[in-house]
Amino acid sequence: MRCVGTRREENGAGLITESRTTNQVLAVVAALQNRLNASREIAPITLPNCRLIKGIECGSEDIDILPNGLAFISSGLKYPGIKSFAPDKPGEIILMDLNEDNPRAVELRISRGFDLASFNPHGISTYVDKDDTVYLFVVNHPHQKSTVELFKYVEDDNSLVHLKTIQHDLLTSVNDVVAVGPDSFYATNDHYFSDFILMFLEMFLGLTWSNVVYYSPKEVKEVAAGFYSANGINISPDRKFIYIADVFDHNVHVMEKHANWNLTQVKKLQLDTLVDNLSVDPSTGDIWIGCHPNGMKLFYYDPENLPASEVLRIQNILSEEPVVTRIYADNGSVLQGSSVASVYEGKLLIGTVFHRALYCEL
């Protein structure tokens, strides 16, 4: 009898343990769906003077515009778990001159010696030196690794001269960079792991192991940590603050930059969308963001249920009441998976992870 009674007790304990395990799994799944905004749908917001940019068919993941109106665009990203319309085509850097009446997309020629076949560009950032030399920093994922490529832009023949490839043990899963010198930058690691399976597990479990790294030839160090997935990064016009987007926590962090390059958090602005790349209007300080209203549609691509696009503008982010305005929203019928929005003198460029790009006159 004791054996029977013991078995019942063990079975009962097993059922309780199984129930707890099931509840824990369900809680993790629910948390993941919340981070992905899996149930969110958006109402469309159209702009009157927009056109899709001819020549950009396979992504325009990040955009950086120089003060003179030259816009650099990274295209052709192949990223684990994300759709690609041209998986075998190398990536490229595209240039648009926004001073033209009808700006065209032109692929920039890259100097010999650089491995174009494995070029897989992600986030980008420009830096104009005191002598007006233009440097372009490009996050690259050759063979699913992470490097930062440093180029010099030669305006005379619309080309990029490759200067060096930057690799470091702290630059493990780089998403975006913001240049703070001719050979120094801040970089976001969107995951702790670089292996795809472990990256997915990290996202599934909701680990906050993502970070921001400062790099210079003399010093490399972690300067901020504790993000679900640090994504876009940029700098304020006065160079005093660094803005960091946490895509899975739906917020933008404002960090004060110190003389030793360390960062301390000033505030965090919570939003209701997955924030990707950040662009800063140099004249107003406004932050423009390409966003993913529903991350589930982005990661689980369904041509019958397309990933949407959304653009936000944040005004006066340092104030007690920043103003957040939805500028553009589309259900994917025009633009799929918006990742960046950049402005120049009344002109707006909206880029995507793997789809097309939109040019608008505001």
TrEMBL record:
<dbReference type="GO" id="GO:0005576">
    <property type="term" value="C:extracellular region"/>
</dbReference>
<dbReference type="GO" id="GO:0009636">
    <property type="term" value="P:response to toxic substance"/>
</dbReference>
<dbReference type="GO" id="GO:0004063">
    <property type="term" value="F:aryldialkylphosphatase activity"/>
</dbReference>
<dbReference type="InterPro" id="IPR008364">
    <property type="entry name" value="Paraoxonase2"/>
</dbReference>
<dbReference type="GO" id="GO:0046872">
    <property type="term" value="F:metal ion binding"/>
</dbReference>
<feature type="binding site">
    <location>
        <position position="175"/>
    </location>
    <ligand>
        <name>Ca(2+)</name>
    </ligand>
</feature>
<comment type="similarity">
    <text>Belongs to the paraoxonase family.</text>
</comment>
<dbReference type="InterPro" id="IPR051288">
    <property type="entry name" value="Serum_paraoxonase/arylesterase"/>
</dbReference>
<feature type="binding site">
    <location>
        <position position="61"/>
    </location>
    <ligand>
        <name>Ca(2+)</name>
    </ligand>
</feature>
<protein>
    <recommendedName>
        <fullName>Paraoxonase</fullName>
        <ecNumber>3.1.1.2</ecNumber>
    </recommendedName>
</protein>
<dbReference type="GO" id="GO:0016020">
    <property type="term" value="C:membrane"/>
</dbReference>
<dbReference type="GO" id="GO:0004064">
    <property type="term" value="F:arylesterase activity"/>
</dbReference>
<feature type="glycosylation site" description="N-linked (GlcNAc...) asparagine">
    <location>
        <position position="331"/>
    </location>
</feature>
<feature type="glycosylation site" description="N-linked (GlcNAc...) asparagine">
    <location>
        <position position="277"/>
    </location>
</feature>
<keyword id="KW-0325">Glycoprotein</keyword>
<keyword id="KW-0732">Signal</keyword>
<feature type="binding site">
    <location>
        <position position="276"/>
    </location>
    <ligand>
        <name>Ca(2+)</name>
    </ligand>
</feature>
<feature type="disulfide bond" description="In form B">
    <location>
        <begin position="50"/>
        <end position="360"/>
    </location>
</feature>
<feature type="binding site">
    <location>
        <position position="176"/>
    </location>
    <ligand>
        <name>Ca(2+)</name>
    </ligand>
</feature>
<keyword id="KW-0106">Calcium</keyword>
<feature type="binding site">
    <location>
        <position position="231"/>
    </location>
    <ligand>
        <name>Ca(2+)</name>
    </ligand>
</feature>
<keyword id="KW-1015">Disulfide bond</keyword>
<feature type="binding site">
    <location>
        <position position="62"/>
    </location>
    <ligand>
        <name>Ca(2+)</name>
    </ligand>
</feature>
<keyword id="KW-0472">Membrane</keyword>
<feature type="binding site">
    <location>
        <position position="277"/>
    </location>
    <ligand>
        <name>Ca(2+)</name>
    </ligand>
</feature>
<dbReference type="InterPro" id="IPR011042">
    <property type="entry name" value="6-blade_b-propeller_TolB-like"/>
</dbReference>
<keyword id="KW-0378">Hydrolase</keyword>
<keyword id="KW-0479">Metal-binding</keyword>
<feature type="binding site">
    <location>
        <position position="124"/>
    </location>
    <ligand>
        <name>Ca(2+)</name>
    </ligand>
</feature>
<comment type="function">
    <text>The absence of paraoxonase activity in turkey and chicken blood and in turkey liver indicates that PON2, if expressed, does not hydrolyze paraoxon.</text>
</comment>
<feature type="active site" description="Proton acceptor">
    <location>
        <position position="122"/>
    </location>
</feature>
<dbReference type="InterPro" id="IPR002640">
    <property type="entry name" value="Arylesterase"/>
</dbReference>
<dbReference type="Pfam" id="PF01731">
    <property type="entry name" value="Arylesterase"/>
</dbReference>
